[in-house]
Amino acid sequence: MFLFFCVLTNAFQLNAQDTKAMSYFEKATEAYQRRNLDLTKSYLDSAINLDNKYAKAYARRGLLAYELSNMKHALKDYTQAILLVKKDRKQKAFLAKLYYRRGAAYYQLLDYKHAIRDFDKTIKVAPNYTQAYVARGAIKEDKEDFKGALKDYTKAIETDSKYAMAYYNRGLVYYNIGKETKALKDLEQALNLNEKYVDAYIARAFAFQEGENYPQALKDYSNALKYNPYSAEALLNRGIVYQKLGQKDKACNDWRQSIKVGGVEAQKYIDKFCKE
To answer: What is the pTM of this model?
Structure first.
C-alpha cells in the first residue's frame, strides 16, 4: 500500500511538472509573438529545465537561435529534439521538419555535406517535403551540379505546383545552361504565382537585357522597383537599359539612386556617362 502511494504521488508530481513546463512553453509562444526574444528564450529554458524530454521546446529554442544567427546552438537544440522523437512513428511530420531545419542551419554555416545529409533524411521521412528539394537543389546549383539541381527543382514542382521559388530557381539554372526559352517560361510562372516576386522580375529583366529586348527589360526592372524601391541591382541595370535606349538623364538618375541605397557598381557608369 505504501509503495502504491509513493508511485501515485510521483505520478502526480510528474504530471504537475509537465503541466508547468507546458505553461512555460505557452508563455514563450506569447512572448515570441510580441517579439520579446529574450523573454521567449527564458521561458523555453524554464520549460526544458522542468522537462528535459520536451522536444517541442528544444525545437522552438532551436528556431529562436537560428533566427538570432546562433547556428551552433540551433544545431544543438535541433539534434536533441531529433533524438527525442526519432523513434516515434506518430511524429514523422515533426521529425521531417526538424531534419529540414537542422539542414538549414548547416547550410548557413556552409557545411553543405551535413546540410545535404539532413535534407536527404527529410525527404526519406517525408517524400513530398517541397522545401527540402529546393534547398538540396540550391546546394547542387552552388556546386554547379546543374543536372542534379534541375532534378530537385522539378521534383519540388511536382510536389507543389504553386511553389514560386522552385520555378524561379529552376529558371535560373535553365538560363545558366543556355536554355533561355525554358528559363523565361519558369520565371513567368514564378511571377504568375507571386506578382511581387522582385528577384524573378530582375532575373527575367536581365535575360531580356542580354537578348537586347530593352523595352521588356525596362518593364521588368520597373516592376521590381515598384515592389522594392531600394533594390540597388534593379536601379543599376535599369540605368544601363535607359543608357542603351539613349535616355541619359534617366540612366544617370537611376545610377545615383543605386548608390544612395547601397550599390557600388553604379559609380563607374556615372564616371563614364554622367560627366558634363
So the answer is: 0.90
